[in-house]
Amino acid sequence: MALRGDLASVDLAQVFQMLALNKKVGLLSIQSAKLWKVLYFDQRGVTVYHNEHALSERVLAASVRAGELAGEAASEVREHAAQIGQPLAHSLLAGGYLDESELAYRGRTELEEEIYDLFFCREARFEFHEGATFLEAREGVVDPRFFFNCDSVIMEAARRIDEWAYITERIPSTAQVLVSVADLEDDGSYGVDAGAIFDLLDGRRSVARIVELTGLTAFQVCKTLGMFLDARLIAPVAADDLLKFGNQCLDEGRLPDAINLYERAIEAGIGLPESHGLAARAYQAAEKYEQATFHLESEAELRVAEHDFEGAARCLVEARNLVPTNLAARERLVELCVAADGVRMPGFDPLEEGKELAELLGELGDMGRVRAVLERLLTFAPHDPDLKKALVNVHIRAGDQKRVIQLYEAIAEDLVALNKPIEAISYLQKILLLDRSRSDVSERVRRLYEVDERARNRARLLGALAALFLVLAAVGEGYYY
């Protein structure tokens, strides 16, 4: 059965129903830029094709969150498992931390939440591999203890999706940053994971970061946070505090938190354009240079809008140095520096930068941008012969005969000014090859030949006079002796 598609157009519940009704057996792969999950279907229902070690780690983390296991004990379990070369589950059982039923319950709960979380995924593609029990590119197992009824899964997922609409009114984005404003009296009404979630609400971590640190699903975390908000135990961080908290996180090395706080400030329009620079610093520290250059370019554009062209150029130079392959930033830098009132940066030659940029763009085959860069450079250095010759090649490829002729004339004028009439004639003759009706060019070629001939005659006369002078000088010197 060839079944594949996009979850943006086909609901996952429909895929479940189709497989269940047709009693299909095989693996359903769900893949996006951020996740790759595989489910196994047969007559028993559905389960997750999972990595045993990763599941044991999640069970261990869940036991710590629930207070069943201390952090020190979790470290001991990991060390013991590494020493004897056994799975974490074996160490949990051997140490008496969990029994078989508790371990199975925890594992079942974790996999069930993983399945429900997939129903919120829209930007992913799916493909069903009929009859398959494993995927070569994806390590995993199918555990017979962890099968779930497809109809029950679909109904619970539908209920959660309805509940999610209510939750997102309170938590509109996982980038939101919340802080505790009252003490939590944990009587169990907020769920078993409430304490672990509440402890992370320091006004620096985003909801997405809390999801990452707890290992819980976004639904579980956001539902709990929604209850906290309703109980007025937490509140969003004030917009004016975002940059201050971001700076603190940057100083402490909490780079993911600093980045999120800076980007929240940027979304709120706080501290612009400097907040873009702060975000760029955080991304550089995290060695995420592409994102850093994005913020540097954004800061540059805001500075241009404020007529701070020098500050914009500094941002673009930094972006260029971070990622030399960012041709858009380099192109914008050249544009700023070669304008009529352009910026002059110490140690930066816009002409050489522009020529190198044009060469790189040419290798990519983007001749439109090559032409724009070279034309811009020509206004900055109107008598540079290399620029004009490069432009000739570009316009010949573009079929712009009129501009080619203009450039040939300009090159000829430059050569005449440099007292090189014969070289100028070669370019004028190229014009005649393109347009034989240019009688003015023919006349100019004739005049240049005449000028060259007169120059040659003068040179010959001067040479003869110089020779005569030498002869007379020799005769005079001989007579003297």
DSSP summary: helix tally: 21
- Major sheet: size, sense and barrel closure? 5 strands, antiparallel
Task: Provide the gyration radius in Å.
Answer: 37 Å
List the helices and strands in order.
Answer: EHEEEHHHHEHEHEHHEHHHHHHHHHHHH
Order of the strands making up the biggest sheet = 1-5-2-3-4
Q: Can you put this structure into words, describing what you see?
A:
This protein has 481 residues and is of the alpha+beta class. It contains 21 helices and 8 strands. The strands form 2 sheets. It has a 5-stranded antiparallel β-sheet with strand order 1-5-2-3-4, covered by helices on one side. The protein has a 3-stranded antiparallel β-sheet with strand order 7-6-8, sandwiched between helices. Helix 15 packs parallel to helix 17. The mean pLDDT is 88.
Summarize the structure.
64% of the residues lie in helices and 8% in strands. With 481 residues, the protein is an alpha+beta fold.
Record the SSE blueprint.
Blueprint: E1 3-6, H1 12-21, E2 26-31, E3 36-42, E4 45-48, H2 52-65, H3 71-84, H4 88-94, H5 100-118, E5 125-130, H6 150-170, E6 177-180, H7 194-199, E7 202-206, H8 207-214, H9 218-230, E8 234-236, H10 242-252, H11 255-267, H12 274-285, H13 289-305, H14 309-322, H15 327-338, H16 350-364, H17 367-380, H18 385-398, H19 401-417, H20 421-434, H21 439-480
Antiparallel strand pairs: 1-5, 2-3, 2-5, 3-4, 6-7, 6-8
Helix pairs in contact: 1-6, 2-5, 3-4, 6-9, 10-11, 11-12, 12-13, 13-14, 14-15, 15-16, 15-17, 16-17, 17-18, 18-19, 19-20, 20-21
